[in-house]
Amino acid sequence: MDLVTRTAFTHNHQVSLSAGTDISSVYMSIGYLDQESPMIDQDYKRYSFNLNGDVQATRWLRMGMGINASHSIQNYGMINNGGNTVKKDSYRYATSLEPYAPAYDQEGNILVEPAKDGPSEHNILLNINEATNETRTYAVMANSFAEATLLPWLKWRTNFGVQYRNTRVGAYYAPILPILSEAAIPTPKWPLTAIIKNSPGHWKTLFISIRHWPIYTP
Description:
This protein is mainly β. The chain has helices at residues 90-95, 124-129, and strands at 10-20, 24-36, 43-56, 61-77, 131-151, 154-173, 203-216.
């Protein structure tokens, strides 16, 4: 198990800047998240950006807008499988091997061609090094508002928002990995360096929302 697991660490960094006056304010931040999995071939990274501002345009009108953007990379390791018929990840492949199955040859190199009649039908380290399943997501959300003071006890607020999301899925398997069955190999929507199944494409989603509501102040 030591060959496929590790002590995982998570790094979360954020830098922010804010400023304002009696009639306006602005806030900006950037962030970075790096999250490791206890399984050595899985991890998650996210980059984010946030910008918000508002201004008191007149005595009765306040306006503001903001934008949030992010880019995430999810690495599922050697297998990204949601079915119920085959092994799910490198850990499950490792537990299916004999505990004395060799991972290195006599010279200390990763064993490329394990003996078919030996204690191992494949080398888990080779699987980890030569297979990748990755999902990349790009998202941008913009929103704005206008708030009008109609009466001392009554305000009217309108929000407008747009959200765009683009998801791309890619898979790479080296030709020296015959042990991965077809059921374990996802159909990639975004080809990387090489793929077993070639079906390029991606998903795009656009949301637009407009909301109005009165605000009563007793």
